[in-house]
Amino acid sequence: MSVVSVFLFPSSGATFAAVLIQTPSPVSVAVGGKVTINCQSSPSVYSNYLSWFQKKPGQPPKLLIYEASKLASGVPPRFSGSGSGTQFTLTISGVQCDDAATYYCGARMTPLRLPPFLLLGTSSSDVTMTIMF
Questions:
Q1: Where, by residue number, does the polypeptide cross the bilayer (predicted)?
Q2: Of 28, 69, 86, 125, which one's alpha carbon is 20 to 30 angstroms from that of 41?
């Protein structure tokens, strides 16, 4: 289990503290297999604004899932997201070699009337997936 704490400072002067916990780490899966990555947030994510990102070495993070379950444009349907409140899941079905990467959950922790603040995991809260042949 990995834990990261991040403090957010919106322009209103208030301070929000949040924690994201991702499990398991690391993940190993065979080609064609299925993998599930869990993300637990504290406090509850506002309006299910939970996103999942894929990060490969030398590349910027790629958005996979937004608003907990919506597939980002161009992302293969083997990726899916679910959950609400404090419990969220990223599922990859029919894993391919190209899916080997580090995965992050990210959460918007502020209501819509405030500027968006995105809480992202760091290297201490990532889930790295390796593919077995």
A1: none
A2: 28
Please, what are the domains in the chain? 2-115 (2.60.40.10)
Who's near 81: CB < 8 A, 6+ residues apart?
A: 50, 52, 64, 65, 68, 69, 70, 71, 88, 89, 90, 91
Asked whether the bond before 116 is cis by omega within 30 degrees of 0, the reply is no
66 CB neighbour count, 10 Å cutoff: 19
pLDDT digits (tens, 9 = 90+) for 59-68: 988 999 988 9
**61/84 Cα distance (integer angstroms):** 23
**Global pTM?**
0.72
